[in-house]
Amino acid sequence: MAREDAMTRPAVVIDNGTGWTKMGFARNVRPSHVIPTCVAANGATTSGKMMDDLDVAIGREAMALSASREVRWPIRHGTVENWEDMERFWQASVCRYLRCDPEDHYFLLTEPPLNPPENREYTAEIFFESFNVPGLYIGVQAALALAASIASKKQSQYASALTGTVIDIGDGVTHIIPVSDGYVLGSSIKSVPLAGRDLTTFVQYLMRERGEKIPPEDAMEVARKVKEDHCYVCKDMVKEFLAHERKPGEHVVQINGTRGKTGEKWSADVGYERFLAPEVFFNPEIYSSDYITPLPELVHQAIASSPIDTRRNLYGNIVLSGGSTMFKGFGKRIKRDVKRLVDERIAATTKGGTLTSKEVDVEVVTHNFQRTAVWFGGSVLASTPGFYSSCVSKADYEEHGANIVRQNPVFRGI
Ligand SMILES: Nc1ncnc2c1ncn2[C@@H]1O[C@H](COP(=O)(O)OP(=O)(O)OP(=O)(O)O)[C@@H](O)[C@H]1O
Ligand SMILES: [Mg+2]
């Protein structure tokens, strides 16, 4: 396949997350497949022999085999940790889900902020040497999420050429990433290993403590559904408690299920966990003793440590990305709490003096593509005419070696 032919085909876009992989072809609005980022090894691997790649199950198929096989998750807190499994996962994703020949397509992959350069090199080795792709672009997730908000036409008036603060909360990690003119402001990034998976664990814990009768083998999956379908961000935790106590009938929802093994029916109440789970972001001490800084405070710190001339635009264009930002009320609460912190700071610096400071606007952008914002941003970027020439080509790779992917050219084509 000539390189020019590959340029006429849509690029493959894959966003591998700790919990979920989003994959599909550029020019689409949504990924064609969203599957768990896991691999089921067969018996041979656990006894030390190589697994036959045809025998690799990934995603939901892998999870369905958990009774007989070891299920492994190659990404932890956003970063690839098991490269052999990751390669198997990519291989199966391309051949069995996207059903394309990797030699025929350019690829856009994503990486977390501050990804070690060696990880980019390992990725390039796999894609150029094992899969023989004609070209590769590895985009930073935050920059892609910003591109998505611009493409969704929902950016605030402050959004200018890829400037904004991205709050990306997925399954395994929370990142706050100030981006100025397409450049990630690396030293201002805040990162916390608390995210959606912890919220699921918390829901499960709260329901178990209350004695809800959920079959233990389904408890995690039920907790995830409860979190995604019934949780919301409240305005004030204490007031919300009182409201639940006063009128439980208005706040408690009942869920029902059937036990897979026996067909027995069960039902359970969902109450305080509806607002307590996402409250972990705002009052983290209710869940963790290690990470106790509230998310709005982290956002404020990240922006306050960025160059002074960027701050106004960073406060004015806070962009949400990742499945765990989808809770009802999340954007409003972030906006209110960050605004309070900014106002307090302004009041403290001007107090007692003649100094006055201009009000700072805080805007939080929410849009329909939050769950797959990174993927959508990748799809948009890979659909622009400048994309192919921004990629590292196979010829570049062969001439310069894996070193060439240590840095991507900054892409400004949107
Ligand atoms: N509607 C929803 N409300 C709340 N949480 C949700 C919703 N939909 C999905 N989630 C949660 O979002 C998480 C998955 O989000 P996402 O796909 O962005 O994560 P990821 O990319 O796999 O992880 P990471 O970015 O941390 O590596 C899961 O914890 C999932 O339960
Ligand atoms: Mg992610």
In short, what is this structure?
Keywords: Actin-binding, ATP-binding, Cytoplasm, Cytoskeleton, Nucleotide-binding. The protein is α+β, with helices and mostly antiparallel strands and 414 residues long.
Write the layout of secondary structure elements.
Elements (H helix, E strand, L loop, with lengths): L2 H6 L3 E5 L3 E6 L7 E4 L2 E2 L2 H4 L10 E2 H6 L6 E2 L2 E2 L2 E2 L2 H16 L8 E5 L5 H14 L4 E6 H11 L12 E6 L4 E7 L2 E2 L5 E3 L3 H14 L9 H12 L6 H10 L1 H4 L1 E6 L6 E6 L2 H7 L15 H10 L6 H6 L1 E4 L8 H21 L13 E2 L7 H10 L4 H4 L1 E2 H7 L14
Parallel strand pairs: 1-9, 9-10, 11-17, 17-18
Antiparallel strand pairs: 1-2, 2-3, 4-5, 4-6, 7-8, 10-19, 11-12, 12-13, 12-14, 15-16
Helix pairs in contact: 6-15, 7-8, 7-11, 12-14
